[in-house]
Amino acid sequence: MPSLPKPSHQEPRPLYGIGLKVLSVMIFVGMQTCLKAVGDDVPAGQLVFFRSFFALIPVVIYLWWLGDLRTALATDDVGGHFIRGIVGVTSMGLGFFALSRLPYPEWISLSYGAPLLTVVFAAIFLKEVVRAYRWVAVLVGLCGIVIVAAPNFSLSSGDMDSAHAVGALASLGGAAMAAIAMIQVRRLVAHEKTATIVVYFSMTCSIIALVTVPFGWVVPDGRQAMLLVGAGLCGGVGQLLLTACYRYADTSTIAPFEYTSMIAAVVIGYFVFNEEVTATTLLGACIVISAGLFIIFREHRLGLERRRARKVSPPSP
């Protein structure tokens, strides 16, 4: 893992930022691979706990190195963090449940629905202005999601009650909850530090996940325990790298590289889990990714236009 800089005003270094983004994506893919390899006999709530609790280890070490460990817990919005935690636990629980029941590339493709739904929810809850171009891109992207998910609900083959159908529904629900979580994060970043959001998120998720103990946690064997702890550590390191990458490049420059996870998912699904990607999954993924890239490109253009408008506007008297 590269040395993470202490927060400061950094000169733009797009290639370095892109490198950190791609590395964070690969580490998150490693986290997901660990969780999928654990097997479907470990409950989703238990997966959420290990993912959240052990993620605190690298995060706390990093904050201690920065000297920000004490101030990271200072907040005036405990309720907001708790809501973020509730939504995050639900999203992760549904997502991890789906991951154990769907081929990895299909799961990744369905998870790409979260950014599209974030646009919809931002318009509804935050009253953000969403123009026609983005609405069209969102609708096209959601059509791609339907293409990926539809084969799981083929009535002619009687698959409605299959594990794949349930997994697809859970994955879509997880994507929707992830989009709501992003809306809550947007509210929190207006007055909370990034470190505070990350620490409270991991803490609240760990505590809330413990509520699921009576519903059937299992005692993991040695291999499962290593995978669970590894998933948590990967989650924490990936979060740190993801946070660091935005210090060096604009969001519009970095965000498209999120989709490199699809390549990794296809490779890992084939070689690790013996899963072959289907034509409908590839087609739907390409549509969703294209819609996402268009939204990112459109946001970049609008950002440039707003900056130009500010430069030419006369100063207020």
TrEMBL record:
Pfam families: EamA. The keyword Transmembrane helix applies. Gene3D superfamilies: 1.10.3730.20. It comes from the Bacteria. Residues 16-148, 167-296 form the EamA domain. The chain crosses the membrane at residues 15-35, 47-65, 107-126, 133-153, 165-185, 197-219, 225-246, 253-273, 279-297. InterPro entries: EamA_dom, EmrE-like. Keywords: Membrane, Transmembrane, Transmembrane helix. It is found in: Membrane. The keyword Transmembrane applies. It is a multi-pass membrane protein. Belongs to the drug/metabolite transporter (DMT) superfamily. 10 TMS drug/metabolite exporter (DME) (TC 2.A.7.3) family. This is Permease of the drug/metabolite transporter (DMT) superfamily.
